[in-house]
Structures are given as C-alpha cells and as structure tokens.
Amino acid sequence: MRIAQIAPLYEAIPPRLYGGTERIVSYLTEELVARGHDVTLFATGEAETSARLAVVRERALRLDPSPLKSAIAAHLAMLHEVQRRAAEFDILHFHLSHFLHFPMFEHMRECTVTTPHGRLDYSDLAPAYALWQGFPMISISNRQRRPLPAANWVGTVHHGLPLDLYEPLPESQRGIGEPYLAFLGRLSRDKRPDRAIEIARRSGMRLKIAAKIGDDDRPYFHEVVEPLLDHDMVDFIGEIDETEKPAFLGNAAGLLFPIDWPEPFGLVVIEAMAFGTPVIAWNEGAMPEIVDNGVTGFVVDTVDSAVKCVGMLDRLDRREVRRVFEQRFSATRMARDYEAIYAAMAAGSGCSERVRTDHERAE
C-alpha cells in the first residue's frame, strides 16, 4: 500500500528527548516500510527514516531557537502539501491533535484515518467533531474513546515498541546499589510527581526523577514539586535521552505512574515493561487496559495502596513482565493492527483515483 504518515511538527522523528507521539510515529513508519509498504513521512528535516521523507519544515518547533514561530502556520503549510499530493496515496494517516486537518480533507475523509494521541475531553472537541462527522478515527486505548462516543471509531491500536529497542539488563548488571523507584515523564500536575514523592518517602525507598519541565509546567514545579525535592531520599536527575533509559529504567525496582488525568495510553509504562520493570499505576485513564494487575505491576487507587505495593514489587517475575510486553506491545503487532485497518478502509474505495479525478476537475 501507498501510505502517508503525517506527523506533528513539535519534535523530531524520532525525538531527541521527550516526545511520545513522535516516537510512535517513527516506530510505526519503520515497521510499515519493513513490511513492504511504500510509506511517505511528512515531517521536519531532522527526521531519520527509511521511508520517503517529505520535509515540510526544516527544524522541529521545539528544536528551533527562534522566538518568533507559529505552530498553527507550520501545520497548515504541511497540510496544504499533503492535500496537494493526496492522489499519490491509498491512505492518509494523520497523527495531529484537535482535528486541525478536518476542514481541508472533508471531501476525501474516507481516504483518511486519524489517531489522536492525547486526551479527548476538551470542551470544544465534541462540537468540532460534530461539524465534520464521519472522519475515521483510531483510538490508542478503549478508554480514550469515552468523551467522543459518537465518533467514527474504526479500531483501537495500543502502542508498540521494537523488541530490540530495550532489553532487560543481565542479572549481573542489575540491582547494583541501593534499590530505587523511578519516575519518568513530565513534571506536570497531571503526572503527579508530588504523589510519587509521597509514595517513595512513605515506603522508605529512594525515588529517582528523570523528567522534563515544560514552560507551562514551571509554575507548578516551582510552587509544588521543587520544595519536595529537598529530601535525602529524592534524586532529581532532569530530562534524559534514549541512551540513558536502559540504566535508569532497567535498574529500577519499579516505575511509579501516579497520574491524575485520563491518560489515553502512557508510553513510559510499556517502556518500563520492556526492561522487565514492573509498574505501580493509578487507576486512571487506560491504566487498567495496559497494566496486568499482579503480573506486570499494580493498579492502585490510593497512596496507602501504592505504598503497600512497593513492598510487593519483588514478588513479581521480571521475566514475565518482559514476556507480556513482547506478547502485547511490540511494534510488529502495532503495525499489523494498523495495516489491517488500512486494508479494510482502502478496499474498494479507490481513494487515489477519486482524488486524482477531483484534482483534474478542479483544473
């Protein structure tokens, strides 16, 4: 199949540091190419890919030092290029948030599929979707669908990682030094690092925090989190890159994921599982779908329960955590799931031929 992957422009593909959506777009693109598809990736110039690369902006927005840049303008320019080339593809797969592309592709919505990677409970999203009904949508968890029950959901595809991307550390290399809990992600109110600190302090186990502080999160960090870091059981490392994840996650006794929002997936959860590291996650969003309670970790509702589960982490078999990860969350499985949806949508639709005819009529 001829497939267009349309990525957000905030981070490089794959991202240099933080960036869950862009990471998944990269893994999916590479796996589809390996499976023999003709894939074009619409992204920024730093992208590293085996697909055909359509450069729509030289630098990712986050990596661009210019203070004068417009995310909306950059994405609209990209969408114009996708629309211009639409006849080249059997399917257009959008990974953009908030349905920005809907007005421009309403005449060919059957040739598109949209994977929203974020939360869908913003007050304006349901009315916006109602204006452009029928666009095929793929959720990243069943829980993600709840705010938009009337949307045209054509499938749910859980995220996946390449099996050789992360591997459990050998026993001879793991567990050297003081046991610790890990917190990885963003230092935002939704992610509740303050809750993670409380759990660690009450359990008596060291907490290592490797996290990004976004501009929007700085007030919360300074007012709530920073005062809690002044404790001899809490180590704030800062943002880490891919090369640092194996030691950070692979050596941890467990990952704390004490979120306070309807998390649509939680990529760091399966990253931990890839190392065989169990997860203590809050009973929010997709966590009951992703974490097999008592097998790959624990799903909890209170700090008391989380503290209790810290003492139970060593009862879980880290080899079984990895085995479940391989079975449920591989990039190959993810690509197969998307591939099946693409095929079902493209069958008999004649998308590229119809789009080409529309262009000819317009001329």
UniProtKB/TrEMBL annotation:
InterPro entries, per database record: Glyco_trans_1, Glyco_trans_4-like_N, Glycosyltransferase_grp1
Residues annotated as domain Glycosyltransferase subfamily 4-like N-terminal: 18-125
One Gene Ontology MF term: glycosyltransferase activity
Domain Glycosyl transferase family: 177-304
Keywords noted in UniProt: Transferase
Pfam family membership, one: Glycos_transf_1
SUPFAM superfamilies, sorted: UDP-Glycosyltransferase/glycogen phosphorylase
PANTHER family: SULFOQUINOVOSYL TRANSFERASE SQD2
Protein name: Glycosyltransferase family 4 protein
Native organism: Borborobacter arsenicus
